[in-house]
Amino acid sequence: MARTAIVVFTARSFDEILHDRGSRDWRLDPDRARQCEFLVCTQNRHNPNFGAPNAPHRAAFLIARKGAVVPSPDVPDRWLIGFTEYVACNIANIWGKSGHRR
């Protein structure tokens, strides 16, 4: 089985994601998301209305073994991508047009 990951571009901080035990409020295909093994959170510092970003823009700051994909507790028709294990990281330019590795 190929190792697959969901890569998200989020304005939420590492601490906010840990508190929620997942990255939330995504519009996605839950069946497809459930097939992935990992969640990679990359930082969006240009949308602070949705969180308190504190990692470098476009950098991966959290890599996790994906857990349950469940309806968001806050936004109808959106999903929370849970995780069971995680590691903090700082890997530059994961998200973006130049140098992205999605």
Ordered list of secondary-structure elements with their pairings:
Blueprint: E1 5-10, H1 14-20, E2 22-26, H2 30-34, E3 38-43, E4 60-71, E5 79-91
Parallel strand pairs: 1-3
Antiparallel strand pairs: 2-5, 3-4, 4-5
Give the percentage of residues in beta strands.
Answer: 35-45%
Shape: globular
> In total, how many domains does the architecture comprise?
1
- Count of helical regions: 2
Largest sheet: 5 strands, mixed
SS-derived structural category: mainly beta
C-alpha-based Rg, rounded = 13 Å
Q: Descriptors for this entry?
A:
five-stranded mixed beta sheet; 102 residues; globular; 5 strands; mainly beta
Structural overview:
- The protein is mainly beta and 102 residues long.
- The protein has one domain (5-91).
- 12% of the residues lie in helices and 41% in strands.
- It contains two helices and five strands, in the order βαβαβββ.
- It has helices spanning 14-20, 30-34; strands at 5-10, 22-26, 38-43, 60-71, 79-91.
- It has a five-stranded mixed sheet with strand order 1-3-4-5-2.
- Strand 4 (60-71) and strand 5 form a beta hairpin.
- The longest helix has 7 residues, at 14-20.
- The radius of gyration is 13 Å and the shape is globular.
- The two termini are 18 Å apart.
- The relative contact order is 0.27.
